[in-house]
Amino acid sequence: MHTTDVLIIGGGIVGLGTGLALAGRATVTVVEAEHRVAQHQTGHNSGVIHSGLYYKPGSEKARNCAAGRELMYQFCEENGVPHDRCGKLVVATDNREVKALAELERRGAANGLRGIERLSAEQMREIEPHVRGVAALRVPETGIVNYKAVSEVYARKIAEAGGSVRTDTKFLGCTRELGAINAETTAGPIRAKLLVNCAGLYSDRVARLCGVEPGVRIVPFRGEYYELKPKAEHLCKHLIYPVPDASLPFLGVHFTRMIGGGVECGPNAVLAFRRDGYRLRDISASDMLELARYVGFWKMARRFWWTGAHEMYRSASRRAFWHALRKLIPEVSFHDLVRAGAGVRAQAVAPDGKLVDDFFIRQANRMIHVLNAPSPAATASIAIGRSIAEMVTKELV
Q1: How confident is the model over 131-140, as pLDDT tens digits?
Q2: What is the pTM of this model?
Q3: pLDDT in tens, 145-164
Q4: Strand intervals (E) in the chain
Q5: Which domains does the chain have, with CATH numbers?
């Protein structure tokens, strides 16, 4: 039997960030069901280093993003991970959005953003000549990186510190005894003093396998992307975002320059028919039956049915997606768009149908379950990892 101080379930960026924070302070074993780390949310996002503009001041998202952003830039610099503090514009396309833009500016200031700048339409066009709108916020703290590359460095550093990152190792369940947790995995048993659940899309199921009721259910939302053809990439110099709908934890379709080159457009947000359903044809009858039996899903659906229907239409229609993008950059041609990849967001939904907006962590006997860690979790992964490591250290004493 393999023994370790801390068993971390999930080799995404939050699990690895936690392992990195604990490395050298305790023996750490990270288990990942896939053949490589960062294969789900971490490896399918748009690679943005978020500034902290959107989040409610005082929230876990706001605190961790503010600290984690600069830690991420520092980590990338010290470890040779390519990144670019390129900045972004948040654009009000009409006068109705100017009030919401002002609220974002207030939140950004409250969250410690010092370089944020309000731009008139003329000032905006000096920076981004092809963008159309009535006003914008310029946020220089935003950047881009490849989070798969970051995760691989995290994993390497964990191993260098004496820890272990085990891929192709699926967690099957555990039993508890005095002072220890005995976990069963597809690669054999593991005995640990403490367990940390960072399983992302499967975090609620892992909690139940551990005998803990999570209090939420993970609902998977697929975000689909297009890319601009090379001849159209000149239309976008920064990251360009719309003013988001404050009632939803999604930011709307936007333009993102990628660290490896090119410009990504999206994502939309549609219900995925499987926990890891990256394609429309990815369907799991058992996953859908689980959702159908969850009262919180139906309450959420009643609340957001119109938004959901619109997102599904935009998913099915490239023309509808194109029209959404043209609100920001009218010169984008229908033929400039090429289908790209997709990601799946693990969104925790409460029994009352509310989308859990902040990070949600539940502690149990010698266990810590990370049950909601959406964006900006990748940006904040070092800060979140350190916070979880402090919880672990207190438990281990």
Answers
A1: 999 999 999 9
A2: 0.95
A3: 999 999 999 999 999 999 99
A4: 2-9, 28-31, 48-49, 83-84, 88-92, 117-120, 135-139, 143-145, 164-166, 171-177, 180-185, 190-197, 217-228, 239-242, 254-257, 263-266, 270-271, 337-349, 360-364, 367-372
A5: 2-45+148-216+358-396 (3.50.50.60), 85-142+218-349 (3.30.9.10)
